[in-house]
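Supplementary Methods, section 5.1.

A reviewer requested that the exact input to the structure prediction be made available. We therefore reproduce it here, unchanged from the version used in the analyses.
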Amino acid sequence: LDDIRIGDGRGLVDVPVEQMLFDPRGGLWIMGDMGELGLLRWQKDRFERVPGIAPGNLFDMAWVSADEVWMARSGALERYRWDGLSMTLRERVGAAQGMPPVSMGGIALGRDGQVWATTTRGLVCWHSRERRLRVYGEKDGLPDREFSGRPPVVGADGRVLAVTATGLVGFDPNAADTPLPPSQLVIDNIQVRRDDAEGQQSLPVNAPLVLGPG
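The structure derived from this sequence is encoded token-by-token as follows.
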């Protein structure tokens, strides 16, 4: 149907493209390490620079509505207002809120205002209504916290599938956090040194242990 080549005068530049997607109105956007360009939008048979976006690498974007969008860049999530001509920054979630200073694979949205992001340090969730950020790792049930640089896929049922260093992870961005049971003390090994002995003596972990005075 069409063939857009670098340097053919249609706005495509010779830089790595991280993501290409459509907005709610069907418009095409591409992003990546665009330098000063930041973000490109397909307009009148060519890609045009979108004003209002700070320079730097953009990894992904997710539309909340036809005029509001979240974008992912290194160490930050940014919410913009789109008026049809330019973007206006409305909110930034960065180091001050606890965001890891790493690149992101991509983002997905929950229906209650949650913004999820895959990173090399875990799965990040920004609860916009509560103004709270949480980073999920192995202790929260993830088999692997190191996500790849590829954006996640959102299914028709709203669930998300993402690539990690060891395989695929699926999660529901709308599910409430499950309270974790309290940690249980587990005794793995008991050793005792008697009468200033040089070596230590192991005791059965399931045997009664009585400590004397001193």
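The longest strand covers residues 58-65. These observations are discussed further in the main text.
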